[in-house]
């Protein structure tokens, strides 16, 4: 079975543009982890596009590497590579519809893509659409409003985010009184949303989904720094102990029922507030940074289980129970 593995940042998605060091590091970590897990399996051939600016690691040995130059049309290249692929596994941001476009590229080529369906990808790519979908099912989540909606009730501190932004990118925490001035400085105000700034532990859930079913793999802490109103993800602690496991198992099941189009590996960001409890912040329908530490922490080969989802339910063989630090910046 031949799998085309495409990590957007390191695989040529930014050819002709600057290659941000932090994003490239994060992308490389996820790519290398996925390659290692897939190489442990029988009868797997891997094809991996790689930006010419990115070094070839030893982990990519025995994989077919396609070097992507600055003059390359990455979508045209992927169309060509898909003609020889049995499966497509993209790792890409949801912003600007990139992840959804990659999924649709594979569908057009009649190649199975290891992602949620297009409708679910579209909802998860927009924070307001995600909020609306989950709110209908009474799932606890951080209130999210469009920028032109009334600000009363959001509190004294507000977070402004791009509706289809990824993680901490383009997120700004400000005093509510500063909102009019902050909006005036935005290039495209209609592409942003507002959320209350909620104190608490930033956490994430690493999960598998399959057409209305869900399995929680592990619970993680996110190490997020707020400096001068800007958020940055420094790393994560994978497979942290928690007394909320039953709550989170129920939560992911509720999300699976609310969004039955979710499939494969999904990361769910939450904030744990002392008074309000855990609240969903966003859903990432793709590999996330926490994925990098799962096998080391639990012994579970996540890639193997995602492939298993195609014909059966996952089977988690936990051979260890450790907490693993993943550093990004």
TrEMBL record:
GO terms for molecular function: ATP binding; metal ion binding. Residues 131-311 form the ATP-grasp domain. Keywords: ATP-binding, Nucleotide-binding. This is ATP-grasp domain-containing protein. InterPro entries: ATP-grasp (IPR011761), ATP-grasp_PylC-type (IPR003806), MfnD (IPR024710), MfnD_preATP-grasp (IPR040803). It comes from the Bacteria. The keyword Iron does not apply.
